[in-house]
Design brief:
This protein has about 475 residues and is an alpha/beta fold. It is built from 19 helices and 8 strands. A 6-stranded mixed beta sheet has the order 5-4-3-6-7-8, sandwiched between helices. Helix 8 (about 155-165) packs antiparallel against helix 9 (about 175-210) and helix 16 runs parallel beside helix 17 (about 410-415).
Amino acid sequence: MLVALEGMITELRQIGVPISLTEKIDAVRSLRHLPLAGRDGVKSALRAALVKSHDHELAFDALFDLYFSASAGGTQGTGPAGQPAVVNGQSGSGAGALATIDDAGLTELLLAALRDGNDVMTRTIAGIFVDRHAAIESGRPVAGTFYVFRTLRAVDPDKLMTRLVAADKPSGEQPAVLRRLQLDGHEARVQRFRQAVEAEVRRYLVADRGADAVARTLRQPLPEDVDFLTSSREQIVAMRGVVDPLTRRLGGRLAEKRRHRRRGALDFRRTMRESLGTGGVPVEPVFRKPRPSKPELFVLADISGSVSTFAAFTLQLMFALRSQFSQVRSFVFVDGIDEVTDVLRQAPDVIDATRHINAMGSGVWLDGRSDYGHAFESFWEQWGEQVRKRTTVIVLGDARTNYHDPAAGVLKAVRQRAGHLFWLNPEPRAAWNSGDSVMASYQPVCDAVHECRNIRQLKHFVEELD
């Protein structure tokens, strides 16, 4: 048990989950007060001791299943395809009498188990399907994704979903809300079957190679550490779940900073009134309560193909901070520049806004190849006079100009009119000023230039924003 705990904590630290020595000691001590055979209780106790953020729970759950599975614990485990397997305590090629049923019959039993919410039967059937169709090869250092695909291809979760919906279809009219709730329930049941298949594949792999080896092949960055420029669709969804609560926390911190960062003007009348107790000597000056005005925010985002994912997420974050600014105005550019403030305001989400921006051809002037110089010149001509001292300008882009004139002097003019000018670059700092990157031309005219490759770095920037 302690060896498994040590391995799990080491792997959590490897992927970036912060776990201190004190928290590790607390986790070990919690095991003294629990029946170690009670897996759910052990999991809850370790989660409470080791996980401080909801964003890290998925990583913890996956690693707990690896290190505290039956195979990892040294019980009779499953082996590669063709060897005896253990499914819910029953050995053989399947699970008792169920192993003699063909795939069609098992699918009918699975549908019944999903409708009834019978998780035990669902896990058992998942184990049989994995044993039959995954074709796991011993000793291969893989994460098991293809084995999961093989198993699910034999079952076809989409058909399962269709049959569940059809069987639950009422004869008469039904309220839309109730239909939506039923559909969500069916999706959750099918998802539990998928998870059962993934868990069974992991048991095979752990029995074959050990939990440490499997954990290394499954290692993925936390949502806040996923690179904007290389993120997959699934990682994008996970990042949105991190961005939404982050914006609320950052909004509160920004408001608190502005409220307490300085004192207001001297209140002469109150100062003199307070000085009556010291013979008219104003020992303790009294200041008015500060009422700082909310700054304006201008966001200029490069939406060329190389940074489109980065722009979508940073625009979403900055738009969520609009309540902390008197005005948020958003601009997109490639070789031209267009304002999309109204599009972002009216769209229900960033995906819909991006669809509208692409349909309108926003940000494109000539050939759709990045030209920062022309984009900045166009911005200065159309909106330069609207930039003022209370305006904070944030540029989002990689500063790759396709060897066009960077027009750094125009950006300098914007900085002279604005209160602050920040630049967020999604490329690694080591890649700046290589090839057609002209970051060195823009950096001297900015208040600060930040590497911003993931949400963790984006959070660090916004927390420092005054």
